[in-house]
Every structure is written in structure tokens, then in C-alpha cells.
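Sanity check

After download, print the first record. It should look like this:
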Amino acid sequence: MDTVSRALENAASGAFRDGEHVFPVRVYFEDTDAGRIVYHARYLHFAERARSEMMRLCGWTNPQLMDDPGLAFAVRRATMDFRKPAMLDDLLEVRTRVTRVGGASLQAEQRVERDGETLVTIDITLASMAMGGGVCRLPAGLRARLDELVIRG
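Expected C-alpha cells:
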């Protein structure tokens, strides 16, 4: 991969700032209802993309995790708080903070913001699942990297 392609790929993945992963999202027509307001379930899509790109910047893509060590993340719990709507063509940021890493799970807080204003918060717990079924432990290297991201007060 040449330097320009690598730079574009890194830019598409967002960036880490002050312990948070920041991922830009533009609202397209497909994300909205007839009133040009983002449909509530689309925020989960935005959050999923942001988490996937955060993992990529940490050195693991979903296909890599699925192939070796043979795991995928499944949502165990998600709580959303809708404060204000996003609209067609808005440029949003999904900010992800890892809040806890367990042996086979991780918890994160995700905020969808527009111009620094929080529109939606998502508290999410993910379970590490073996591709063959059942819960599996996070590999030591992945767990250590995610643990580095935990914001401690």
C-alpha cells in the first residue's frame, strides 16, 4: 500500500484524541426519515462503524479477529439516550471511550455529537464470542491494548 493510500485509510478510521476515538459520520438521505431526521436505529449503525474503526486503529480488523483467534463481538446490552435529532447532511462525530475491559467483554460509552453538542449517548456492553458459538476470552494482546484505552478517574 502506498503512502497516499495508507494516509487515506488512516483518515477514514478516525483518530484518537484525549483518550477517545473520534470518528466522523456524514448523514445521508438513507439515514433519515421523511422529515430529514436521522432514524433512531441508524445511531447504532454509526456507533458500530466507529467501534470497528477504533479496533482497526488498535491493530485488529473484524476479519482478522474472526480468522485468528476466531472471535467476534456481540452486543450484550445497549442503552441509548436521545437528546436532540441529527438532520440530513449533518457532519457528526462519534466519540468512543472504553470504560471497562473484562476477560471476555468490554464496555464503552459512545456519544454522537454535532459541533461539540451531544445528540445521543450510547452505553454498550460487548461480549467476545467464539465463531463456533459461546463466549470466549479476549486474547491477551487485544485485552492489553483495549485496557490502555480505559479512562481512569
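If your output differs, re-run the checksum step. Summary of this record's structure: The mean pLDDT is 93.
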